[in-house]
Amino acid sequence: MTLNNGVRMPMVGYGVFQVKPEECARCVRDAIETGYRLIDTAQAYFNEEGVGAALADCGVPREDIFVTSKIWISNAGEKAAAASIDESLRKLRTDYIDLMLIHQPYGDYYGSYRAMETALQAGKLRAIGVSNFGVGRFTDLALHMDVKPAVNQVEAHVFSQQTALEKVLREYDTAMMAWSPLGQGRNGLFTHPVLAVIGKTKGKTPAQVALRFLLQRGIVVIPKSTHVERMQQNFAVDDFELSPAEMEEIAGLNEHDSGNVDFENPAFIRYLIETYG
Ligand code: A2P
Q1: Which of 40, 91, 208, 218 is least crowded, fewest Cβ atoms below 10 Å from its Cβ?
Q2: Which of 45, 106, 109, 113 is an active site residue?
Q3: Domain made up of 14-276: CATH architecture
Q4: How many angstroms separate the alpha carbon of residue 159 from the centre of ligand 1?
Q5: Using one digit for the tens of pLDDT, what is the confidence trace for 41-96?
Q6: What is the CA(184)–ligand 1 centre distance, in A?
Q7: Which among 40, 13, 8, 2 is positioned nearest to 211, based on CA atoms?
Q8: Is residue 226 lining ligand 1, measured as CB closer than 6 Å?
Protein backbone atom coordinates (compact mmCIF):
# COMPACT_ATOMS: atom_id res chain seq x y z
CA MET A 1 0.00 0.00 0.00
CA THR A 2 1.01 3.62 -0.39
CA LEU A 3 1.06 5.64 2.85
CA ASN A 4 -0.24 9.23 3.03
CA ASN A 5 3.29 10.56 2.42
CA GLY A 6 3.88 8.43 -0.68
CA VAL A 7 6.05 5.79 1.02
CA ARG A 8 5.20 2.22 -0.02
CA MET A 9 4.62 -0.40 2.71
CA PRO A 10 4.01 -4.17 2.41
CA MET A 11 0.53 -5.34 3.49
CA VAL A 12 1.77 -8.50 5.23
CA GLY A 13 4.51 -8.21 7.81
CA TYR A 14 6.17 -10.24 10.51
CA GLY A 15 5.67 -9.07 14.11
CA VAL A 16 8.17 -9.89 16.85
CA PHE A 17 6.09 -9.00 19.93
CA GLN A 18 6.85 -11.64 22.61
CA VAL A 19 9.66 -13.15 20.53
CA LYS A 20 12.47 -13.74 23.01
CA PRO A 21 15.59 -11.61 22.36
CA GLU A 22 17.77 -14.72 21.97
CA GLU A 23 15.38 -16.23 19.44
CA CYS A 24 14.61 -13.03 17.54
CA ALA A 25 17.45 -13.00 14.98
CA ARG A 26 16.72 -16.60 13.93
CA CYS A 27 12.98 -15.88 13.62
CA VAL A 28 13.51 -12.72 11.55
CA ARG A 29 15.96 -14.55 9.26
CA ASP A 30 13.35 -17.31 8.78
CA ALA A 31 10.66 -14.72 8.11
CA ILE A 32 12.78 -12.93 5.51
CA GLU A 33 13.63 -16.28 3.94
CA THR A 34 9.88 -17.04 3.82
CA GLY A 35 9.33 -13.81 1.90
CA TYR A 36 8.29 -11.26 4.52
CA ARG A 37 9.62 -7.77 3.74
CA LEU A 38 8.04 -5.91 6.66
CA ILE A 39 9.45 -6.50 10.14
CA ASP A 40 7.65 -4.93 13.11
CA THR A 41 9.49 -4.46 16.41
CA ALA A 42 9.46 -1.95 19.30
CA GLN A 43 11.79 -0.57 21.94
CA ALA A 44 9.65 -2.27 24.58
CA TYR A 45 10.00 -5.71 22.97
CA PHE A 46 13.71 -5.72 23.91
CA ASN A 47 14.56 -7.45 20.65
CA GLU A 48 15.55 -4.59 18.30
CA GLU A 49 19.12 -5.93 18.43
CA GLY A 50 17.96 -9.33 17.18
CA VAL A 51 16.15 -7.65 14.29
CA GLY A 52 19.31 -5.63 13.58
CA ALA A 53 21.45 -8.77 13.52
CA ALA A 54 19.10 -10.44 11.04
CA LEU A 55 18.96 -7.33 8.84
CA ALA A 56 22.75 -7.26 8.76
CA ASP A 57 23.28 -10.87 7.64
CA CYS A 58 20.07 -11.95 5.86
CA GLY A 59 21.48 -11.24 2.41
CA VAL A 60 18.52 -9.08 1.34
CA PRO A 61 19.38 -5.42 0.65
CA ARG A 62 18.31 -3.07 3.44
CA GLU A 63 16.17 -1.00 1.04
CA ASP A 64 14.06 -4.07 0.21
CA ILE A 65 12.98 -4.49 3.84
CA PHE A 66 10.50 -2.22 5.62
CA VAL A 67 11.31 -1.87 9.34
CA THR A 68 8.90 -0.58 11.96
CA SER A 69 9.71 0.28 15.57
CA LYS A 70 7.95 2.15 18.38
CA ILE A 71 8.91 4.70 21.04
CA TRP A 72 8.14 3.39 24.52
CA ILE A 73 6.52 5.44 27.32
CA SER A 74 9.78 5.71 29.28
CA ASN A 75 11.23 7.66 26.32
CA ALA A 76 8.30 10.08 26.00
CA GLY A 77 9.00 13.79 25.47
CA GLU A 78 10.89 15.57 22.70
CA LYS A 79 14.43 15.18 24.06
CA ALA A 80 14.17 11.62 25.36
CA ALA A 81 12.30 10.46 22.27
CA ALA A 82 14.95 11.97 19.98
CA ALA A 83 17.70 10.13 21.88
CA SER A 84 15.68 6.91 21.79
CA ILE A 85 15.31 7.14 17.99
CA ASP A 86 19.11 7.26 17.72
CA GLU A 87 19.32 4.30 20.11
CA SER A 88 16.85 2.31 17.98
CA LEU A 89 18.88 3.11 14.85
CA ARG A 90 22.01 1.83 16.59
CA LYS A 91 20.34 -1.39 17.79
CA LEU A 92 18.74 -2.02 14.41
CA ARG A 93 22.13 -1.35 12.73
CA THR A 94 20.59 0.95 10.16
CA ASP A 95 20.70 4.61 9.02
CA TYR A 96 16.93 4.90 8.81
CA ILE A 97 13.76 3.29 10.14
CA ASP A 98 10.93 3.02 7.61
CA LEU A 99 8.14 3.65 10.11
CA MET A 100 8.38 4.88 13.71
CA LEU A 101 5.30 4.85 15.94
CA ILE A 102 4.45 6.18 19.38
CA HIS A 103 3.73 2.92 21.17
CA GLN A 104 0.98 4.03 23.55
CA PRO A 105 -0.93 7.28 24.05
CA TYR A 106 0.49 8.21 27.47
CA GLY A 107 2.97 10.75 28.81
CA ASP A 108 4.26 13.63 26.68
CA TYR A 109 3.48 11.97 23.37
CA TYR A 110 3.08 15.36 21.69
CA GLY A 111 6.78 15.95 22.46
CA SER A 112 7.62 12.47 21.16
CA TYR A 113 5.71 13.21 17.98
CA ARG A 114 7.66 16.46 17.46
CA ALA A 115 10.90 14.47 17.85
CA MET A 116 9.65 12.07 15.18
CA GLU A 117 8.79 15.00 12.87
CA THR A 118 12.35 16.31 13.29
CA ALA A 119 13.85 12.86 12.64
CA LEU A 120 11.63 12.53 9.57
CA GLN A 121 13.05 15.79 8.20
CA ALA A 122 16.58 14.58 8.98
CA GLY A 123 16.00 11.37 6.99
CA LYS A 124 16.32 9.11 10.04
CA LEU A 125 12.69 8.02 9.59
CA ARG A 126 10.73 7.58 6.35
CA ALA A 127 7.24 7.70 7.90
CA ILE A 128 5.76 8.33 11.35
CA GLY A 129 2.59 7.38 13.14
CA VAL A 130 1.03 6.09 16.33
CA SER A 131 -0.11 2.89 17.97
CA ASN A 132 -3.03 2.14 20.27
CA PHE A 133 -4.59 5.58 19.81
CA GLY A 134 -8.38 5.53 20.12
CA VAL A 135 -10.61 7.87 18.12
CA GLY A 136 -10.35 10.83 20.54
CA ARG A 137 -6.61 10.92 21.16
CA PHE A 138 -5.90 10.14 17.51
CA THR A 139 -8.09 12.99 16.25
CA ASP A 140 -6.59 15.55 18.66
CA LEU A 141 -3.01 14.59 17.76
CA ALA A 142 -3.70 14.51 14.02
CA LEU A 143 -5.27 17.98 14.17
CA HIS A 144 -2.40 19.48 16.18
CA MET A 145 0.60 18.11 14.28
CA ASP A 146 2.08 19.23 10.97
CA VAL A 147 2.68 15.69 9.74
CA LYS A 148 -0.48 13.59 9.67
CA PRO A 149 0.14 10.12 11.17
CA ALA A 150 0.81 7.66 8.34
CA VAL A 151 -0.31 4.67 10.42
CA ASN A 152 -2.23 3.81 13.58
CA GLN A 153 -1.30 0.30 14.71
CA VAL A 154 -4.03 -1.20 16.89
CA GLU A 155 -5.37 -4.54 18.05
CA ALA A 156 -7.54 -5.75 15.18
CA HIS A 157 -8.82 -9.22 14.32
CA VAL A 158 -12.10 -10.91 13.50
CA PHE A 159 -13.36 -10.50 17.07
CA SER A 160 -12.21 -6.83 17.38
CA GLN A 161 -12.72 -5.27 14.00
CA GLN A 162 -12.08 -1.57 14.78
CA THR A 163 -14.89 -0.36 12.52
CA ALA A 164 -15.38 2.94 14.42
CA LEU A 165 -11.67 3.80 14.29
CA GLU A 166 -11.48 2.77 10.64
CA LYS A 167 -13.94 5.56 9.68
CA VAL A 168 -11.90 8.20 11.55
CA LEU A 169 -8.56 7.06 10.12
CA ARG A 170 -9.97 7.30 6.61
CA GLU A 171 -10.55 11.06 7.12
CA TYR A 172 -6.79 11.53 7.64
CA ASP A 173 -5.71 8.98 5.04
CA THR A 174 -4.04 7.12 7.91
CA ALA A 175 -3.50 3.41 7.36
CA MET A 176 -4.60 0.87 9.95
CA MET A 177 -2.09 -1.79 10.90
CA ALA A 178 -3.33 -4.75 12.94
CA TRP A 179 -1.38 -6.12 15.87
CA SER A 180 -2.47 -9.60 16.99
CA PRO A 181 -4.32 -10.07 13.69
CA LEU A 182 -4.97 -13.66 14.79
CA GLY A 183 -6.29 -12.50 18.16
CA GLN A 184 -3.45 -14.51 19.74
CA GLY A 185 -5.58 -17.56 18.96
CA ARG A 186 -8.18 -16.65 21.58
CA ASN A 187 -11.88 -17.57 21.14
CA GLY A 188 -10.75 -20.70 19.32
CA LEU A 189 -9.83 -18.68 16.23
CA PHE A 190 -7.64 -21.43 14.75
CA THR A 191 -10.59 -23.85 14.65
CA HIS A 192 -13.49 -21.39 14.45
CA PRO A 193 -16.36 -23.03 12.51
CA VAL A 194 -17.23 -19.94 10.42
CA LEU A 195 -13.61 -19.45 9.36
CA ALA A 196 -13.06 -23.19 8.92
CA VAL A 197 -16.08 -23.68 6.62
CA ILE A 198 -15.13 -20.70 4.45
CA GLY A 199 -11.48 -21.81 4.38
CA LYS A 200 -12.34 -25.39 3.41
CA THR A 201 -13.89 -24.26 0.10
CA LYS A 202 -10.61 -22.52 -0.78
CA GLY A 203 -8.05 -24.93 0.69
CA LYS A 204 -7.13 -22.36 3.35
CA THR A 205 -6.89 -22.50 7.16
CA PRO A 206 -9.02 -20.43 9.57
CA ALA A 207 -5.88 -18.34 10.30
CA GLN A 208 -5.46 -17.52 6.61
CA VAL A 209 -9.13 -16.60 6.28
CA ALA A 210 -8.86 -14.34 9.37
CA LEU A 211 -5.84 -12.52 7.89
CA ARG A 212 -7.45 -12.26 4.45
CA PHE A 213 -10.52 -10.61 6.04
CA LEU A 214 -8.34 -7.76 7.34
CA LEU A 215 -6.33 -7.43 4.12
CA GLN A 216 -9.49 -7.07 2.03
CA ARG A 217 -10.49 -4.17 4.29
CA GLY A 218 -7.15 -2.53 3.49
CA ILE A 219 -5.65 -3.31 6.90
CA VAL A 220 -1.95 -4.25 7.14
CA VAL A 221 -1.33 -7.43 9.17
CA ILE A 222 1.71 -8.48 11.21
CA PRO A 223 1.07 -12.03 12.46
CA LYS A 224 3.63 -13.46 14.86
CA SER A 225 4.87 -17.03 14.89
CA THR A 226 8.16 -18.59 15.87
CA HIS A 227 7.41 -21.63 13.65
CA VAL A 228 8.51 -21.56 10.02
CA GLU A 229 5.54 -23.54 8.70
CA ARG A 230 3.13 -21.08 10.36
CA MET A 231 5.14 -18.13 9.03
CA GLN A 232 4.70 -19.64 5.57
CA GLN A 233 1.00 -20.25 6.14
CA ASN A 234 0.40 -16.68 7.35
CA PHE A 235 2.28 -15.29 4.35
CA ALA A 236 0.28 -17.29 1.78
CA VAL A 237 -2.79 -15.07 1.86
CA ASP A 238 -2.74 -13.25 -1.47
CA ASP A 239 -3.85 -16.13 -3.72
CA PHE A 240 -7.52 -16.30 -2.77
CA GLU A 241 -10.47 -13.95 -2.31
CA LEU A 242 -13.37 -13.71 0.15
CA SER A 243 -16.71 -12.90 -1.47
CA PRO A 244 -18.85 -9.98 -0.21
CA ALA A 245 -21.15 -12.54 1.46
CA GLU A 246 -18.19 -14.21 3.21
CA MET A 247 -16.85 -10.81 4.31
CA GLU A 248 -20.27 -10.03 5.78
CA GLU A 249 -20.48 -13.35 7.59
CA ILE A 250 -17.05 -12.78 9.19
CA ALA A 251 -18.04 -9.19 10.06
CA GLY A 252 -20.71 -10.81 12.22
CA LEU A 253 -17.99 -12.27 14.51
CA ASN A 254 -17.10 -8.79 15.86
CA GLU A 255 -17.37 -8.69 19.68
CA HIS A 256 -15.26 -5.87 21.19
CA ASP A 257 -14.92 -3.43 18.32
CA SER A 258 -11.96 -1.52 19.81
CA GLY A 259 -9.97 -4.48 21.14
CA ASN A 260 -9.63 -6.63 24.25
CA VAL A 261 -6.97 -4.35 25.73
CA ASP A 262 -8.74 -1.20 26.97
CA PHE A 263 -6.35 1.74 26.59
CA GLU A 264 -8.85 4.02 28.43
CA ASN A 265 -8.84 1.82 31.56
CA PRO A 266 -7.59 4.03 34.46
CA ALA A 267 -6.05 1.10 36.37
CA PHE A 268 -4.15 -0.04 33.26
CA ILE A 269 -2.91 3.51 32.59
CA ARG A 270 -1.84 3.98 36.24
CA TYR A 271 0.04 0.67 36.15
CA LEU A 272 1.91 1.62 32.97
CA ILE A 273 2.82 5.13 34.12
CA GLU A 274 3.92 3.92 37.57
CA THR A 275 6.01 1.15 36.01
CA TYR A 276 7.53 2.96 33.02
CA GLY A 277 6.53 6.63 33.05
P1 A2P B 1 3.71 -19.65 17.74
O2 A2P B 1 4.59 -18.42 17.81
O3 A2P B 1 4.07 -20.68 18.76
O4 A2P B 1 3.61 -20.18 16.33
P5 A2P B 1 -1.07 -12.97 16.93
O6 A2P B 1 -0.21 -12.72 15.73
O7 A2P B 1 -2.51 -12.69 16.74
O8 A2P B 1 -0.54 -12.27 18.18
O9 A2P B 1 -1.01 -14.54 17.25
C10 A2P B 1 0.20 -15.11 17.61
C11 A2P B 1 -0.04 -16.46 18.28
O12 A2P B 1 -0.68 -17.37 17.39
C13 A2P B 1 1.24 -17.09 18.69
O14 A2P B 1 0.98 -17.76 19.91
C15 A2P B 1 1.55 -18.11 17.58
O16 A2P B 1 2.22 -19.23 18.14
C17 A2P B 1 0.19 -18.49 17.09
N18 A2P B 1 0.09 -18.67 15.64
C19 A2P B 1 0.53 -17.82 14.69
N20 A2P B 1 0.19 -18.23 13.46
C21 A2P B 1 -0.48 -19.40 13.62
C22 A2P B 1 -1.12 -20.30 12.72
N23 A2P B 1 -1.12 -20.09 11.41
N24 A2P B 1 -1.73 -21.39 13.25
C25 A2P B 1 -1.76 -21.63 14.59
N26 A2P B 1 -1.16 -20.78 15.50
C27 A2P B 1 -0.55 -19.68 15.01
Answers
A1: 218
A2: 45
A3: Alpha-Beta Barrel (3.20)
A4: 16
A5: 999 999 999 999 999 999 999 999 999 999 999 999 999 999 999 999 999 999 99
A6: 6
A7: 13
A8: yes
